[in-house]
Each structure stands twice: as structure tokens, then as C-alpha cells.
Design the sequence.
């Protein structure tokens, strides 16, 4: 059988499910990072607190507390980058040998699914995981840039370079966190993409669940209310 014959096993519902999950990933990311002014996301609210942190950092003495916080943030990015690598390795191993999946599917499905279809479905999971890995690695590196700039902030708050350098560190901190959040969203959608192995309807349902989970945590969560000062 040719590749085109194998691809014909993907129906219109599969294309809809694929379009939905990729569209949800991109649109949610844009809405979270560019929310309406009167309804900020948790990401935007925390970004402002990161800038405030760098302003306070200028007058803090000693600055050990700040270095400890930044170190913990970098450890988080390293942990998730490592997790992504392990997950990518596992999925690639499965792509190279789809027999276990075909064996399980043969027991529950009437029509046999070609190996190429399994590989395409696992390829979508790999796409999200690779994106997550790259975002986590870049986030870790930008946090490193932030630490260097923080180290360059003069100890004297009255020094003319103190607050400009602190502002640069704040923006780097925000960019690092933004990429970290992008990596987390990609991992969420990687989990949703796994549902495609069951079927198109399963991935549509998983996409809706993942989308709602991400949206609610950014726009309808208790931490957001706390950041807005609605809960004390």
C-alpha cells in the first residue's frame, strides 16, 4: 500500500480535530499574552510583579534573597526541559516501533490502522513536546541573562545606571517567564494530543478540556483574584 492510501485512513473528523488542537494552542497563547486591558491574565499580572521585584531589588541589601529566587526559577526550567527530553525519547521510540499500539488497537478496533497513521498521531505529540523543550531551554538561558544583568546593577541606588539596569533585568525576567509558560502550554496540549491515539472525537474532547483548564487558570482562578486584590 502507498503512503497516500494509508493517509486516506485519516477522515474529515481527524482533520477537524487536528485543526482544533493547533488552533486552540495558538489562539489561547495569543489571548493569554495579549488580553483585553480590563481582563488581564495571570501571566500579565505576574509580569508586572516581576518588574516591581527588580525595582525593589535595587535597594535590597544584601541581595542573596533575589539570587535564591532566580536560582529556583532556573531549576524549574531545567526540570521541565529534562522531563520533555525523556518524553520525546519515549514517543520517538514508540514511533520507531508501533507494534505495541497496533496490537492493542487490534483488540478493540474492527479496522486495522496502518503504522503510518500511528506515526502521524505520535508525531503531533512530538511536535508539542519538542516545542516545550525548546521553550524551556530558551527560558533557562534568558533567566541566565537576567542574572548577569542583575549582577551588574550597582549597589548604590543613586547610581545613574541602577534603575535602568534593573528595568532591563525585569524585562528579561518577564521574557524568560513567558517562554516558560509557553513550554507548559505545549506540554498540556501534548497530553491532549495523546487522545488522538483513541480517535478524533477523543482528541476533540481532550482539546476542549485542556483549553478550558488553561483558560480558567489564567482568567478565572483564585490566584488571579488574589493578584487583583479581590481576595485578602
Sequence:
Amino acid at each position: 500500500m502507498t503512503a497516500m492510501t494509508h493517509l486516506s485512513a485519516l477522515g474529515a473528523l481527524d482533520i477537524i480535530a487536528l485543526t482544533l488542537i493547533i488552533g486552540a494552542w495558538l489562539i489561547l497563547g495569543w489571548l493569554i499574552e495579549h488580553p483585553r486591558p480590563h481582563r488581564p491574565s495571570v501571566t500579565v499580572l505576574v509580569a508586572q510583579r516581576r518588574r516591581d521585584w527588580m525595582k525593589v531589588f535595587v535597594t535590597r541589601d544584601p541581595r542573596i534573597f533575589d539570587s535564591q529566587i532566580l536560582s529556583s526559577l532556573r531549576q524549574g526550567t531545567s526540570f521541565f526541559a529534562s522531563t520533555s527530553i525523556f518524553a520525546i525519547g519515549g514517543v520517538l521510540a514508540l514511533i520507531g516501533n508501533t507494534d505495541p499500539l497496533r496490537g492493542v488497537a487490534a483488540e478493540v478496533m474492527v479496522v486495522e490502522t496502518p503504522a503510518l497513521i500511528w506515526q502521524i498521531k505520535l508525531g503531533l505529540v512530538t511536535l508539542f513536546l519538542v516545542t516545550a523543550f525548546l521553550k524551556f531551554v530558551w527560558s533557562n538561558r534568558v533567566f541566565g541573562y537576567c542574572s548577569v544583568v542583575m549582577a551588574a546593577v550597582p549597589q548604590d541606588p543613586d547610581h545613574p545606571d541602577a534603575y535602568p539596569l534593573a528595568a532591563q533585568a525585569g524585562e528579561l525576567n518577564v521574557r524568560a517567564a513567558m517562554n516558560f509558560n509557553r513550554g507548559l502550554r505545549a506540554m498540556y496540549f501534548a497530553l491532549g494530543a495523546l487522545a488522538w491515539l483513541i480517535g478524533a472525537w477523543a482528541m476533540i474532547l481532550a482539546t476542549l478540556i485542556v483549553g478550558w483548564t488553561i483558560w480558567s487558570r489564567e482568567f478565572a482562578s483564585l490566584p488571579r483574584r488574589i493578584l487583583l486584590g479581590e481576595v485578602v
The radius of gyration is 22 Å. Residues 40 and 84 are 29 Å apart (CA to CA).
